[in-house]
Amino acid sequence: MSPTRKTAAPPSSPDLWEFLPLTEVAANGSLWIEHQGQRFFGPGPVQLLELIDETGSINQAAKKMDMSYKKAWGIVNNLNATALRPMVITATGGQKGGGSTISAEAKALIIYYRELRARFNQFLETETIRIRK
User: Fold this and answer.
1) SS3 96
2) Which residues have CB under 8 Å from 69's CB, separation 6+?
3) How many other CB atoms are found less than 10 A from the CB of residue 22?
4) What is the pLDDT of residues 99-109, one digit of tens each?
5) Dist CA 6 CA 64 (whole Å)
6) DSSP letters of 55-87?
7) Side-chain half-sphere of 86: how many Cα atoms within 13 Å?
8) What whole-number distance in Å separates Cα of residue 66 and Cα of residue 88?
9) 47: Cβ–Cβ under 8 A, 6 or more apart, which residues?
């Protein structure tokens, strides 16, 4: 039998962080919304939706992001398949060759994500201050 190895508990107070160069340490993280354990909505989809809204085109939005049209369509299809209402509405043909718009629900989700991101950033800033004390 091998002996049970005990590990030290993580520091519960910034006072215990004596082993780190605290002026160079910061809390950091990424934030996205998941659906069924898969990333659904985060910085990339937000930017893509905003650019679709600005340009009226999935293709033009993808170009502005240096993203392939195929990848942009994959994101749009994932958003539309996951949401209960379409996030991107496409129109084919017509005098201008069709186009795309984002729904009111997509705009609301963008606003919610930006607010969530602000709260997350505040949390990270607070924890960075706490670590550096």
Assistant:
1) coil
2) 58, 59, 62
3) 14
4) 999 999 999 99
5) 52
6) HS-HHHHHHHTT--HHHHHHHHHHHHHHSSS-S
7) 10
8) 20
9) 65
User: What's the token pair of residue 98?
Assistant: 């069709």
Tokens, residue 62: 């993808």
What secondary structure letter does DSSP report for 37?
T
Both structure tokens of 115: 């607010």
Number of H helices, E strands in the chain: 4, 4
Those residues with Cβ within 8 angstroms of residue 41's Cβ, 6 or more apart along the chain or in another chain: 32, 33, 79, 109, 113
Amino acid at 12: S
User: Which residue ranges form the domains of the chain, and what is each CATH number?
Assistant: 40-132 (1.10.10.10)
Whether pLDDT at 74 is above 80: yes
- Count CA atoms closer than 13 A to 44's CA, side-chain side: 17
CA-CA distance, 67 to 61, in Å (whole number)? 8
0.90 exceeded by pTM: no
Q: How open is the CA angle 26-113-55, to the nearest 5 degrees?
A: 115
User: In whole angstroms, how large is the CA radius of gyration of the chain?
Assistant: 22
Q: Which of 41, 39, 31 is nearest to 117 (CA)?
A: 31
- Pairing relation of β-strands 33-35 and 98-102? unpaired
